[in-house]
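Supplementary Note 3. Input sequence used for the single-chain structure prediction.
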Amino acid sequence: MAEPVKKVVLAYSGGLDTSVILRWLQETYRCQVVTFTADLGQGEELEPARRKAEQLGAAQIFVDDLREEFVRDFVFPMFRANALYEGAYLLGTSIARPLIAKRQIEIAREVGADAVAHGATGKGNDQVRFELGYYALAPEIKVIAPWREWDLTSRTRLLDYAERHQIPIARDKRGEPPFSVDANLLHISAEGKVLEDPWSEPEEYVFSRTVAPEAAPDRPEYVEIEFARGDAVAVDGERLSPAALLTRLNELGGRHGIGRLDLVENRFVGMKSRGVYETPGGTILLAAHRGIESLTLDRGAAHLKDELMPRYAELIYNGFWFSPEREMLQALTDKSQEQVEGVVRLKLYKGSVRLAGRKSPKSLYSLAHVTFEEDVVYDQRDAEGFIKLNALRLRLAARRSR
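The predicted structure, written as discrete structure tokens, is reproduced below.
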């Protein structure tokens, strides 16, 4: 017998799975279901989700535009750290989950709900990310994860349940989808089905945000990105809001086939999975940010950031956005960005992003010191003592081993 629940807030996409979950919650828990659909820039019309929730008897319906908050408060802080999971993945799915969890908890408090629910399966990372977020923000909240409770363990059973309960099914859902897709303003991912064999190259139809690099324009395109305190604020001299800026970079990157990634990654739950990602704007943004940091960050600060970055990225991937250690690392990262200001020029061409120039009023680059021509600010004889002091322990060790 399910534990009594009066009202639950469901993270609702309007797709088959969460529509079945909506009805299943009503039937199993005899409770009111409030739906929450987040617009994170996934590029889909969300009004159909609202209408479907109404049709299925949702007690209240929330459809929230969170695009600016997503980029400003989640994507940009992550990019200040240059975060890459396992050296490659720009964490597009991972970084969206804490915001969804945060808004769900806010709605639960607003409507007096005693539970929240999500549609993540028991095999993946998202169940962990959602629930760690819920518990960090509302320790006493009840969490319902239908995929860990029900007996609808196959696509066929889901479809049968939907038909029995008169849940509308999109035509393309009646056949087996070739892969599963997750999208937001930062990226789009595909996994499962035709992508489960890591030896098989993804077909071109898997990609939707980028042209194939081979089909990209034969002429390169240059773009200039301006930064202030580590965040991008303008493209080609035009100041843009965070979401508008990332949208612009997505358009540029997509046109030039930039940001494709085929990755076999280690899930937090223990298994390996193969994902195909498109992150066109994020790939450009990362290259630009590292370019402006190369001018403005002190060597010690830059190297420390690079040492800590894998830990920071792993925390986000594993769902610990609201953990004290992530917040501590964020404070350190943000401190490092105080002087990260200036403009980076990039060359976009057939899947590649290359630095073409960078300048900053806060630059630490000194031509007077680094020039190969005659100078008056650096005495090359000073290097002898520097080298001998650094070599001292090596010389002592060498003598001992004779």
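The mean pLDDT is 94. The first strand starts at residue 7 and ends at 11.
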